[in-house]
Amino acid sequence: MSGRLATLGHGEIDPLILQALVRKLVAKNVLSPDDVRALLFEAATRLDLVGSNQTPQAAQIIVEEDLVPAFLGG
């Protein structure tokens, strides 16, 4: 059963679950939007898109333009 679940949505289910979990934690005031932004920034600085970690400026752009809308909505 777990093998079938792992392939559900061709790997697209993991991000959806993570986004739903973060939204639920924000709705319950366990995490603030600023907490989420800080977590996303920390993760974005470790992204290796061009052969090294992102600069703080590039990570901030990734967070605000791509990740915050996905995790916190519009």
Description:
It is built from 4 helices and no strands.
Strand content: under 5%
So how many helices? 4
Question: What is the radius of gyration?
Answer: 14 Å
Low-confidence stretches: none
Report helical residue fraction: 55-70%
Cα end-to-end separation: 35 Å
> Would you count the extended β strands for me?
0
Shape: globular
Task: Give helix and strand order, one letter per element, not per position.
Answer: HHHH
**Biggest pleated sheet:** none
Q: Structural class of the secondary elements?
A: mainly alpha
Q: What value does the average pLDDT take?
A: 87
Describe the SSE topology:
Layout lengths: L1 H6 L5 H15 L5 H13 L10 H17 L2
Quick recap:
By secondary structure, the chain is mostly helical. It is 69% helix and 0% strand.
Which structural traits does this protein have?
single chain; 69% helix; 0% strand; mainly alpha
